[in-house]
Design brief:
The chain is mainly alpha-helical. Among the domains are: 88 residues, Arc Repressor Mutant, subunit A (Orthogonal Bundle), CATH 1.10.10; 112 residues, no CATH class. Helix content is 47%, strand content 11%. The chain has 12 helices and 7 strands. It has a 3-stranded antiparallel β-sheet. Strand 6 and strand 7 form a beta hairpin. The longest helix is centred in the middle third of the chain and has 17 residues. It starts with 14 loop residues before the first helix and ends in a 9-residue tail after the last helix. About 4% of the residues have low confidence.
Length: 287
């Protein structure tokens, strides 16, 4: 119960701002993202805050790609200001509701029990329809003669109704973005093999944990990771050592980055380095 007390922290916000947010014709996702920015700025007595899309997603429960879309809409509505020159980006809530690009509800006067009251008349703002908002309907072929064609039709219909990306796809998204940001080029990915590696890791770890470790791994200057090019296969095989390095603990020897590796991890790394050195060497002549 202690966490619900004001003594344990509170966010100062003008009543007028809350009233304007309640009247603004924005969706639930937009409101959640706005509240997240207010919490991380006003909640710390600041006018702005630095957040990643992943952090906003964790605070609001939204998928990362949805957070990106919502932020773009809020910027277009002039409710949020975003400075892209910083890393992470800087977010600022625009408290001047008169400058928002929205149509507020019109108010009409009515009566209740003989007293004059103000009754809000809601005016819904029309957003452009996005293709993935409306599932595509698949019209079945009447002349279906085989069971296989029926199964294929059901599979196609199921794919067309998918609206969220899987945890594996989210890991690929994080990997591609962080890799290009850190190294200025696209990574070499083996789709089926690397996707299977992510699936195995998801059996033992959460998607959020793997995303954090993946960001650390791609930005690591550990010599072995540099030599193998920060590939997903190494991330999967060295996950235990990466977790130890990410947490900055464990017993073993230290790498050049000052992180700690266990003896078993050190042996695996040495074995992989030997295999890496053997690649490209000419084969021995057979007598």
């Amino acid at each position: 119960m202690a966490a619900e007390q004001l003594e344990d922290g509170f966010t100062r916000i003008a009543n007028h701002i809350l009233e304007m947010l309640l009247q603004a014709p924005i969706g639930g996702r937009e409101l959640r993202v706005v509240l997240a920015v207010i919490r991380e700025s006003y909640g710390w007595n600041r006018k702005d805050c630095r957040l990643t899309l992943l952090q906003i997603g964790q605070m609001t429960g939204l998928a990362r790609e949805h957070v990106c879309e919502v932020v773009k809409r809020l910027v277009g509505l002039n409710i949020l200001k975003v400075d892209t020159s910083t890393n992470p980006r800087t977010y600022r809530f625009n408290k001047y509701s008169g400058t928002w690009n929205v149509v507020f509800p019109k108010r009409e006067h009515g009566s209740r029990n003989g007293n004059t009251v103000t009754v809000p008349k809601m005016v819904t703002q029309v957003f452009p329809k996005r293709e993935h908002d409306v599932p595509k309907m698949v019209t079945p072929n009447i002349h279906i003669s085989t069971k296989d064609s029926t199964k294929d039709m059901i599979k196609d219909s199921t794919r067309s109704l998918e609206r969220t990306r899987s945890p594996v796809q989210q890991l690929f998204d994080i990997y591609f973005e962080e890799y290009q940001k850190a190294h200025g080029r696209k990574p070499d990915v083996i789709g089926g093999k690397d996707g299977a590696a992510f699936k195995r890791l998801l059996n033992n770890h959460t998607s959020e944990e793997l995303q954090q470790w993946l960001v650390w791994y791609v930005n690591s200057d550990e010599p072995f990771y540099v030599r193998v090019g920060w590939n997903i296969g190494t991330f999967s095989s060295q996950i235990n050592g990466i977790i130890e390095q990410y947490n900055g603990g464990g017993n073993g020897t230290r790498g050049s980055t000052g992180t700690v590796r266990s003896k078993e991890e050190e042996a695996r790394v040495a074995d992989l380095e030997r295999k890496f050195e053997d690649v490209g060497k000419p084969a021995r002549a057979v007598p």
